[in-house]
């Protein structure tokens, strides 16, 4: 459920996103998420029930599927696409993210809560693969691995979404109407969410931070941009997505050079 699509017929099935791990279909105003990992579906439903921000209504849940009602409004855009919305809309998104991060902690670690040691080991292995496979040039990988180092520091656990792309936050004007795709949620580093939300749209970072209402270490945001992109490039390439498209992950890596 990566974005709202206008005027979908009630008898038309639209594939919103699909790969070997999961798929999301839209039929009218219902989104059907099918996931091979039932633990992930259960975690998503539980996270939505705990999140202190608007989320889609769960219509029903029956393995291997989760049916969700569509949210009103539109997103601010997508990675690689033109960004939309006023500065106030981006600030409103920042305020909603802050409300999430200030909420009671869920009792499990999420994607943004991996230990520094585990994350560094994963990143080093992925960087080696990117270079040896020839997928990315060595100098690009090396420079962004250096930038990513700033993310490896102590952080206070927050309620994090874990995959807070701008296509996952819906607004009606300057009001956030809901946040979708909670399968990676849990305790984690708040700056991971802020970095994910602004990846590829650096021009709106100040607006988001203004709405968030806290001092932010920009070096850590830059680090997460590099780290997330390095970890994503190969997976995206292998699952039918294009991280080399303008404004996407590889361009985010090049911006750090």
Layout of helices and strands, plus pairs?
Layout (H helix, E strand, L loop, with lengths): L12 E6 L3 E6 L2 E6 L2 H13 L7 E5 L2 E5 L4 E2 L11 H15 L14 H17 L5 H11 L9 E3 L8 E4 L2 E5 L6 E3 L1 H9 L6 H8 L5 H21 L10 H6 L3
Antiparallel strand pairs: 1-2, 2-3, 3-5, 4-5, 6-8, 7-10, 8-9
GO molecular function, one term: transferase activity
Pfam family, one: APH
Organism: Streptomyces buecherae
Could you please describe the fold and organization of this structure?
39% of the residues lie in helices and 18% in strands. With 257 residues, it is of the alpha+beta class. It has a single domain (73-254), classed as Aminoglycoside phosphotransferase (APH), C-terminal lobe (Aminoglycoside 3'-phosphotransferase, Chain: A, domain 2, Alpha-Beta Complex), CATH 3.90.1200.10. A five-stranded antiparallel sheet has the order 1-2-3-5-4. Helix 2 (87-101) crosses helix 6. The protein is globular and about 50 Å long.
